[in-house]
Design goal:
Blueprint lengths: L6 E3 L8 E5 L5 H7 L3 H6 L7 H17 L2 E9 L6 E10 L7 E8 L8 H17 L6 E7 L3 H9 L3 E6 L10 E7 L9
Parallel strand pairs: 5-6
Antiparallel strand pairs: 1-2, 2-3, 3-4, 4-5, 6-8, 7-8
Helix pairs in contact: 1-3
């Protein structure tokens, strides 16, 4: 991916538009701020405590884009009448390999943006982009994993038409509890509703 990818998500009656774009170094301060949220820290696989952690995390996202196997997007919201974008989340497509029929998606939402459909709207945009972009490479399905007790993540998966597939056993330390595996196949129709 040599050209920057920016995905636009239209506004809904209840929510402003979203912009999904690759992470940048100027996002570090906002990333550190949203990472202070205890709920986010409970589910996150990596902890961002300070600017150094944030810099390493953003660099890892950029390295994934350069390698072509992990595509992390900062999810930003623009308030009506403002040119200022606010970080509201993250979506990622990972484990992308040419010829491999499956890849994984993940997401998180900042505390101040929860309950407004940010994750499901951003995930829908990522899903559509992934299938369009990697269809020729053989991508047929996307997998979404979350810990069984992460009920909010399960609701996002269901709302985004990722069907429940199975329960996966815990794999400590990165996945300390059993998990749900949800799957969405390329042949399923896309929806523009949130």
């Amino acid at each position: 991916m040599s050209t920057p990818v920016v995905l636009q998500v239209a506004a809904t009656p209840a929510s402003p538009p979203l912009v999904l774009r690759p992470w940048r170094m100027e996002d570090v301060a906002a990333l550190v701020e949203v990472s202070r949220d205890p709920a986010l820290r409970q589910w996150a696989s990596s902890v961002v405590d300070n600017d150094a952690d944030g810099t390493r995390w953003v660099q890892a996202q950029q390295q994934g884009w350069a390698a072509g196997d992990r595509f992390g997007f900062a999810v930003l919201e623009t308030q009506l009448g403002s040119f200022r974008e606010q970080l509201v989340g993250n979506v990622v497509l990972k484990e992308v390999t040419s010829g491999k029929p499956a890849a994984e998606v993940g997401y998180w939402t900042a505390a101040h943006a929860r309950g407004r459909g940010v994750a499901s709207r951003a995930l829908e945009a990522l899903t559509s982009w992934a299938f369009d972009t990697f269809e020729a490479d053989g991508l047929e399905r996307l997998e979404l994993l979350h810990q069984v007790d992460n009920l909010a993540s399960c609701r996002v998966a269901q709302k985004s038409r990722y069907d429940f597939d199975s329960i996966l056993p815990a794999a400590p330390p990165s996945f300390p509890r059993d998990g749900h595996l949800h799957i969405r196949r390329r042949s399923e129709p896309f929806s523009t509703s949130a």
